[in-house]
Design brief:
This protein is an all-alpha fold. The protein has one domain. The chain contains 4 helices and no strands. It is flat, with a radius of gyration of 25 Å.
C-alpha cells in the first residue's frame, strides 16, 4: 500500500500535465452560441402537456395511494401525506415555473 508521501509525490507529478490540458482546452475551445433552436419543442410540448394534464393526475393519485397504503398498514407518518401533496403541487405547478425560469435566463 502506498504511503501518503508517495501519493503526494505522484499527485505533484500530475499537476503540470493537468495544467497543460486545461490550457489546451481553453485555447482550443470554440465559441458557444445560443439560438432559437426548436429541435426538442415537439417532445417538450408533449411531455409538459402530459404532466400538466392526465399524466400529472395519475402520478399524484398513485403517490396518494401509496401514502394511504402506508397509513393502512399502521405506520403513521406525516410524510405519507406530505409527499403526495408535494408531488401534486410539483407536477401541477413545477413545469410552468421551470419553463419561465429557463426562458428568463436565456
Amino acid at each position: 500500500m502506498a504511503t501518503t508521501m508517495e501519493r503526494d509525490t505522484r499527485l505533484a507529478a500530475l499537476v503540470p500535465y493537468l495544467l497543460l490540458a486545461a490550457v489546451a482546452l481553453a485555447v482550443l475551445a470554440g465559441p458557444a452560441f445560443a439560438g432559437t433552436d426548436n429541435t426538442f419543442d415537439t417532445a417538450f410540448n408533449k411531455f409538459s402537456g402530459f404532466l400538466e394534464g392526465s399524466g400529472g393526475k395519475i402520478i399524484t393519485l398513485i403517490s396518494l395511494a401509496g401514502g394511504l397504503v402506508g397509513l393502512a398498514s399502521g405506520r403513521f407518518s406525516l410524510a405519507q401525506i406530505a409527499i403526495p401533496v408535494g408531488v401534486g403541487v410539483g407536477v401541477g405547478t413545477g413545469i410552468p415555473i421551470v419553463t419561465s425560469t429557463i426562458t428568463a435566463i436565456i
